[in-house]
Write a structure and sequence with these properties.
With about 400 residues, the chain is of the alpha+beta class. The chain contains 14 helices and nine strands. The longest helix has 25 residues. It comes from Streptomyces armeniacus.
Length: about 400
């Protein structure tokens, strides 16, 4: 039997040609971003999509405010539908003086072919809205920080020049504070993104709005040992951050900066109680907060004779769970790190963090064996002994 012969204009060839044409358009647009060439940038945009063209003019203005030294696109997947196409596109960009490695993001784009040429026609549903797509951007440069904000186009909640400068000042204080504790070299710079609202924050992170309600800030980026490592960003929720005291804001910013500094040594083997606990331990240093005031949920558990039997698991740190349980998990991690520093010293705490990150995680992210190995090596206890010591410490500190 003879196999059918696919002609030169078969489906595969059409898709391959479309992919090449779309990549060529994206390459030209990327070059235009770096060259500051507005006309060339807009040449890539569908002339019929008037609303999208208007939005892209604003995007180009915003990109001109960023210290970019890299901007590129790479098609990951394309689906051809006649003169239309949809593609998942990997964006990679780097900020000069701040990013050692590029930031990566996936955009879901629509394309149209007119007169034999492909154009970017819009964003598809489900595509995350990058900060430069969220209204007019503001940029504040600090000694150790770069703060980027967008007004959201629909009335930002209290995000004004004073708030942005306050965030920059908090980040500038956080960087040397973290460097005093963290023993390994790091960039000693932090990039902070401040969307206009909590809804805009969720759109930036590609998550439901309710996921970050009440969360003052998060840090994004790939941990050590991950493929395709990406530069870190601290993302501030202006609604939750704005209601904090000055001390509370500083604790949050220092906490998030710890994540930036420790990222290369934070791996799949690092339990969240340790990574979040260390961030809180450094964040609370020098604030004068007592254990009872900093750990009210665990203090209540002690009073009610309901102290958890074990250290908090990773699933207890989910933002979409119960707030009390989330707070209790953070408090438990903080007190575990505080106990190590109190009993064995700060150097042992840092050594334990590094040793834990060097371990091989178990199946389904099980940290128990790796934590056990790291504890034995650094403090001479197994995980069960350490857990009992932690429970006694929590009782003593919070009773």
């Amino acid at each position: 039997m003879l196999a059918p012969v696919r002609g030169a204009d078969g489906p595969y060839e059409h898709e391959h040609a479309a992919r090449d044409g779309i990549q060529h358009v994206l390459d030209g647009q990327a070059d235009a971003v770096l060259a500051g060439d507005r006309a060339r940038y807009l040449e890539a945009v569908d002339p019929v999509a008037s609303g999208y063209r208007g939005a892209q003019r604003a995007v180009f203005r915003n990109l001109g405010r960023l210290p970019l030294d890299r901007w590129s696109y790479r098609i990951e997947d394309v689906r051809l539908r006649g003169a239309r196409a949809e593609a998942d596109v990997r964006l990679r960009y780097r900020l000069r003086g701040y990013d050692r490695v590029p930031v990566t993001a996936t955009e879901k784009l629509a394309f149209a072919r007119r007169d034999g040429r492909w154009y970017v026609a819009g964003e598809r549903p489900g595509s995350a809205r990058q900060l430069w797509e969220q209204g007019r951007m503001s940029v504040v440069r600090g000694k150790h920080s770069l703060v980027l904000s967008a007004d959201g186009g629909d009335g930002a909640v209290g995000v004004d020049e004073a708030m942005l400068r306050g965030i920059s000042a908090a980040a500038d204080r956080a960087v040397p504070a973290v460097s005093l504790s963290w023993p390994r070299p790091w960039a000693r710079r932090v990039v902070v993104e401040v969307p206009g609202t909590s809804r805009a924050m969720a759109e930036l992170l590609g998550a439901p709005t309710q996921s970050y309600e009440g969360i003052a800030a998060v840090t994004t980026g790939a941990g050590g040992g991950s493929r395709g490592a990406s530069a870190d960003r601290v993302v501030v929720n202006p609604e939750a951050y704005g209601v904090l005291t000055e001390t509370g804001r500083q604790v949050v910013m220092t906490h998030e900066t710890v994540h930036v500094a420790t990222r290369p040594h934070t791996t799949a083997a690092t339990p969240l109680w340790l990574s979040e606990g260390l961030a809180d331990w450094i964040g609370y240093r020098g604030t004068g907060r007592s254990p009872r005031s900093a750990a009210p949920q665990l203090a209540r558990a002690v009073r009610e004779d309901a102290l958890p039997r074990g250290l908090p698991g990773d699933d207890e740190f989910r933002f979409d769970g119960a707030t009390d349980a989330l707070n209790r998990a953070y408090e438990g991690g903080w007190l575990a790190c505080r106990m190590i520093a109190d009993r064995w010293g700060e150097e042992r705490l840092m050594a334990f963090y590094l040793k834990a990150g060097e371990q091989r995680p178990g199946e389904d992210g099980d940290h128990r064996r790796g934590v056990d190995t790291a504890l034995r090596a650094v403090v001479g206890l197994d995980r069960a002994e350490f857990t009992e010591l932690w429970r006694d410490y929590v009782r003593d500190e919070l009773a």
